[in-house]
Amino acid sequence: MALAWMFLFTSPLLLAKSELIPEIEQLQAEIAHHDDLYFREAAPEITDFEYDLLKLELRRLEQESGVTFPPTGIGDDRSTPTNQIRHGLPMLSLDKAYSDAEVAEFYERVSQASLGDHIDFIIEPKLDGIAVSVVLERGEYKSAATRGNGAVGEDITAQVEVIRSLDYEWEFDPSFPRIERIELRGEIYLADAQFDSLNRDRRAANEPEFRHPRSVAAGSVKLTNLNEIAARGLSIVFHGWGDVMPVEAAPSSMAEFHRWLDARGLPSAQTVRFVTSDKAAELNRAVEQVRASLSGVPTDGVVIKIDLVDLQKTMGNGPIAPRWAVARKFAPPRARTVLRDIVWQVGRTGALTPVAEFDPVTLGGATIRRASLSSASEIIRRDLRLADPIWIEKAGEIIPQLAGIEYAQRSADSQVYALPQQCRSCGTRITQIEGTAELRLVCENYNCDEQVVQRLLHFVSKAALDIKGVGPTLAQRMVESGLVRCPSDLYSLSLDQLVTLPRVGQKTAHRLLIEIDESRNASRERRILALGLPGVGPRGARQLSAEIGSLDKLVDPVGRRLALSVLGESVSAQVLSHLRRPEVDQMLRRTLATMGDQR
Ligand code: IVH
Question: What's the CA-to-centroid distance between 238 and ligand 1, angstroms?
């Protein structure tokens, strides 16, 4: 991370060729680390723009050093060595252009190859999801694979099948010769509306929000639970092809390919534009128009391709990317500000989440003061310090992110950020848990006010018992006044007690009591969700509800072990160890006694 910003804010040192090697190796390792976060953990720490800068810098250094480096497996998305599919033709990457001038250079190269003819281009959105190769044989869906290392990808046939049907009626195909077998190349992505709706559900269930639609797409195609993939609402579109049999049946232009898709009801990108251009400026104007028209889908630029396959062949492919296409990337809007504080929010399970607070900035029409940081590890890895000059970025509806730190401009007397030792809410000493990927901070005091408030808010949330009228302020007052220390205390509240709380009058108190009483009729699934068991969201609650028969089984050590096994080994172990805590057991018994088990 640090490196990316050094490129932007300091001029690179001029080094002798062999001296570049350690730097190249360090950069390769850094890129491999980000690949890992992006492809295997689906939790990137840097923006795509920064990632591209790292790769650009790597390429520049490699060229400068004159040394050819063996391929490093950069960009490999495979996480398991099994279930692999070899692509018929390699899945290439795209060269990037970051300015109109770079698009003009591309145009000049094409113009020379076309010997002065008018050139037809197609401009498409560059969808920000996960690349996929789908094989259809005689119109029948056969297999799907991720890009992998470009030559071999991971088998995701079953996962793609639930996204949408990809068959077509081959027998009635009028084209001649007919395509017997085709490798379609495309992108799986999550539309903005779907992303927002997933995050609304997660907010309602008090679960951490997804940070980027791409991470959801990347994470979803690796899920083994097909119902869960279906519930994510992913989309797929095709923008190209690989191996085609027979070869004579392959499309002769991009336009023909899109017509072929449309006629067979196969999905192609929503906005495509064909331009015939004899000036680079015209091409840039068309690119700008396409860019302005993009909406509703996550994109990280547009792709400009030559339309005619013959001219594509004249230009040929490089080892990594074709010479007949270029991705025009646009930097997302960002603003510079100063980090003022890192606030550690306590969740209902005691996990602490860092939130960066900074001087307000306006981005995309909204004023932003906070950005969530993923974990303590992110702060350590990026060496984030208080009073640092930072860049904040927001693309579409996505949660604002810390895009970069201006290390060169930081104050000379700044101090390495010290992780908190004590919980800001209850003063308990914080426990540091070293996970495989991340360092987690936890407040282990079950009676910590902020945890009790968060458990209460989860209990009353829409997805759980849907008790309207208990917002963060009232929840805090209920907890601090001692009226509610366990969510089930809600059921023994009286009107007289409620009106002692600030800003609660007779009418509000009365309405609240009705809401609380009605929640006794909530389904078993909702009541399970309301318990706030670690790792048990709406889906887990549904599975557990179907399995468990009666909520009382949760307090029976044998019965609960059996029932919880439907949640899978890791969640089940997490919940069992949670339930073994005496204070949790006590809370659970009290809650079950008051809520009963009517259904
Ligand atoms: S064409 C041989 N067109 O971008 C050219 N790629 O850097 C191959 N992508 O992961 C790509 N939208 O899946 C092309 N309209 C589009 C695209 C697109 C997104 C992805 C592609 C790959 C990456 C290439």
Answer: 9
Question: CB under 8 Å to 16, separation ≥6 — which residues?
Answer: none
Q: What is the distance between the alpha carbons of residues 564 and 587, in angstroms, rounded to a whole number?
A: 18
Residue 268 Cα to chain centre, angstroms? 23
User: In ligand 1, which atom is closest to the CA atom of 317?
Assistant: 2
Any idea of the CA torsion for 337, 342, 343, 348, to the nearest 10 degrees?
Answer: 110
CB of residue 303 inside a 6 A radius of ligand 1: yes
Q: What is the pLDDT of residue 349?
A: 87
Residue nearest to atom 13 of ligand 1 (CA): 131
CB atoms within 10 A of CB 72: 14
Asked if residue 326 has its Cβ within 6 Å of ligand 1, the reply is no
| DSSP summary character for residue 57 | H
**Counting atoms of ligand 1 from 1, which one is nearest the CA of 132?**
13
- Which pLDDT belongs to residue 13? 37
All domains in the chain, ordered by first residue: 15-65 (1.10.287.610), 92-329 (3.30.470.30), 334-442 (2.40.50.140), 449-595 (1.10.150.20)
CA of 183 to the centre of ligand 1 (A): 14
For ligand 1, whether the C-beta of 430 sits within 6 Å is: no
What's the confidence (pLDDT) of residue 102? 95
Is the CB of residue 220 less than 8 Å from the CB of residue 229? yes
Ligand 1 centroid to Cα of residue 274, in Å, is 17
Rounded CA gap, 590 and 577, in Å?
19
Q: What is the pTM of this model?
A: 0.65
Cβ atoms of 520 and 595 closer than 8 Å:
yes
pLDDT value of residue 40: 58
Q: Per-10-residue mean pLDDT for the chain, 599 residues long?
A: 36 49 76 72 65 76 68 60 86 92 95 85 94 97 94 94 95 92 97 88 72 85 88 95 96 95 91 80 93 87 95 92 94 89 93 94 84 89 95 75 92 96 96 84 95 95 91 94 95 96 95 95 93 87 90 89 90 91 91 71
Task: Take atom 21 of ligand 1 and give the residue whose Cα is closest.
Answer: 131
Q: Catalytic residue positions?
A: 126
Say yes or no: CB of residue 92 within 6 Å of ligand 1: yes
- The dihedral region occupied by 585, where left means phi > 0, alpha psi between -120 and 50, and beta the remainder, is alpha
